[in-house]
């Protein structure tokens, strides 16, 4: 493609417009690598500086990202969390499945794992063993979060509410795993729950000891009913939290592998030291 | 006044206008209003003002302020206004939160309603309270007393209309919550629905003109019908 000499726009503007159109019409998909600067120089018959100027424009528009040494890529326009559920499902294709979860209530865990466990129940997925470890905050102990918003004080009644919510999803998950073992659908299936006295600040999933997902719990104020009366509380809110994926691959030079290794070390350290059996 | 009245009034309200002293907090809980009124009187006496009998024992500092405006001495009026502002900011530090006042503000926000404060107290003292209680992000705008212009205070609808205008809201979609008759009158004159907060015995009867009356701010939270409660 050559540039139009009658076009009042500068060559770099024309090139940026052409590439922008190709990105927006999906000719280059999110995550896809753009042709090299060398190739673009040939394609448009312009100087390398002109190509660089065009790419800078697209970078400013957040349409592309340049990774040192590996090239220019179309930005994944919805930089949303990679859904956890498909990863969990893929993990269950392994012979031995392990899932470690650390967080607040386990609601995300339940949502992510429920469908996959159903697929084991109907024989669509056939792992030999499942080991689930759940590490959550001990809502019988004083906590920094959740707390009363007015005076930022710990309140046993608020914790009792959090515990009720936690119990619900934790029981649902552990019962579902236990059922698979009882039915003899998997050789061994265990679901262990332990608690610690640190306040919930983040959630972490470690899948088959190979992948990790991490999300922050922002502290959010909302009004809830406590013993029949409204109360404004500061709460750890996880349901809208973006989960950052750490999924190392063999040729991966990023920090993902190191992240997963450190996440596992952290989880094991908590599990083996200050965490105690969950009494439900 | 029944529960259905309250539900109807709150149901169509997208904007909740709160009077400050009463629905949000009790500003003079620790530093009594009568003491503040006395301080203002001393200031007037120092300026050679002769106080009429009804002002001599007036416990409400805002009433003393209103009187000051009738003297035709702008310098004195300004001095009293500034003194009262200082007193209010000091009082805001020790103000007592109204039971469920915070819950009303947070629940209104949760249900997509906007919250503003329309008060005869100074904007400075309201900001001081909201900042101290980590509530500023929920409340906009804060319409306080127009300086040195006591005639513009509620029951004048002007401050209510200021808030409505600032929010580009339709008065029909606003409701004002107040604990005095002047709040109800100001709301009525502004074409805004009103809820009387009967926080003291005997107030309920005075709110005949209000669209609904509540005894506790908790009733308002319930009327917002927050799903996740």
TrEMBL record, chain A:
InterPro entries: Bact_HTH_transcr_reg (IPR050679), Tscrpt_reg_HTH_GntR (IPR000524), WH-like_DNA-bd_sf (IPR036388), WH_DNA-bd_sf (IPR036390). Residues 9-77 form the HTH gntR-type domain. The keyword Ligase does not apply. Keywords: DNA-binding, Transcription, Transcription regulation. One of its GO terms (biological process) is negative regulation of DNA-templated transcription. SMART domains: HTH_GNTR. It comes from Plantactinospora soyae. GO terms for molecular function: DNA binding; DNA-binding transcription factor activity. This is DNA-binding transcriptional regulator YhcF (GntR family).
UniProtKB/TrEMBL annotation, chain B:
One of its GO terms (molecular function) is phosphoglycolate phosphatase activity. Transmembrane segments: none annotated. InterPro entries: HAD-like_hydrolase_sf, HAD-like_sf, HAD-SF_hydro_IA, HAD_2, HAD_sf. This is HAD superfamily hydrolase (TIGR01509 family). The lineage of its organism: Bacteria, Bacillati, Actinomycetota, Actinomycetes, Micromonosporales. It comes from the Bacteria. GO terms for biological process: DNA repair. GO terms for cellular component: cytosol. Keywords: Hydrolase. It comes from Plantactinospora soyae.
């Amino acid at each position: 493609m050559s540039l139009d000499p009658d076009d009042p726009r500068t060559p770099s503007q024309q090139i940026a417009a052409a590439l922008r159109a190709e990105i927006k019409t999906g000719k280059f998909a999110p995550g896809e690598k753009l042709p090299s600067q060398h190739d673009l120089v040939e394609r448009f018959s312009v100087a390398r500086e002109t190509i660089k100027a065009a790419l800078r424009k697209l970078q400013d528009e957040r349409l592309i990202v340049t990774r040192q040494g590996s090239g220019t890529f179309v930005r994944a326009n919805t930089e949303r969390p990679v859904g956890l559920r498909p990863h969990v499902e893929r993990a269950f294709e392994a012979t031995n499945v392990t899932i470690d979860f650390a967080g607040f209530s386990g609601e995300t865990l339940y949502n992510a794992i429920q469908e996959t466990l159903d697929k084991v129940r109907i024989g669509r997925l056939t792992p030999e063993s499942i080991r689930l470890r759940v590490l959550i905050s001990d809502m019988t102990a004083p906590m920094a979060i959740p707390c009363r918003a007015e005076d930022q004080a710990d309140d046993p009644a608020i914790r009792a509410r959090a515990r009720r919510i936690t119990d619900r999803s934790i029981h649902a998950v552990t019962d579902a795993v236990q059922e698979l073992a009882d039915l003899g659908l998997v050789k061994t299936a265990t679901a262990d729950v332990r608690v610690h006295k640190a306040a919930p600040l983040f959630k972490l999933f470690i899948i088959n000891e190979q992948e990790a997902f991490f999300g922050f719990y922002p502290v959010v104020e909302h009004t809830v009913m406590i013993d029949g009366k409204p109360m404004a509380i500061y709460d750890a809110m996880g349901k809208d939290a973006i989960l950052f994926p750490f999924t190392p691959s063999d040729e991966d030079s990023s920090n993902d592998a190191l992240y997963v290794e450190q996440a596992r070390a952290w989880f094991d350290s908590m599990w083996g030291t200050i965490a105690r059996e969950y009494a439900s | 006044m029944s529960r259905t009245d309250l539900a109807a009034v709150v149901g169509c309200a997208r904007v909740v206008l709160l009077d400050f002293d009463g629905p949000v907090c009790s500003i003079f809980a620790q530093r009594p209003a009568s003491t503040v009124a006395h301080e203002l009187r001393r200031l007037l006496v120092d300026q050679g003002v002769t106080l009429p009998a009804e002002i001599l024992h007036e416990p409400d500092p805002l009433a003393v302020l209103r009187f000051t405006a009738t003297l035709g001495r702008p310098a004195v009026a300004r001095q009293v206004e500034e003194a009262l502002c200082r007193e209010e900011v000091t009082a805001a530090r020790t103000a007592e939160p109204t039971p469920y006042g915070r819950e009303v503000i947070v629940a209104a926000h949760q249900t997509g309603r906007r919250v503003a404060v329309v008060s005869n107290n100074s904007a400075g003292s309201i900001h001081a309270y909201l900042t101290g209680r980590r509530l500023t992000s929920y409340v906009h705008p804060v319409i306080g007393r127009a300086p040195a212009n006591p005639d513009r205070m509620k029951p004048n609808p002007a401050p209510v209309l200021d808030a409505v205008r600032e929010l580009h809201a339709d008065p029909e979609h606003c409701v004002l919550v107040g604990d005095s008759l002047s709040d109800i009158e100001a709301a009525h004159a502004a074409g805004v629905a009103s809820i009387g907060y009967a926080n003291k015995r005997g107030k309920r009867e005075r709110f005949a003109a209000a669209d609904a009356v509540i005894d506790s701010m908790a009733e308002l939270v319930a009327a917002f019908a927050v799903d996740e409660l």
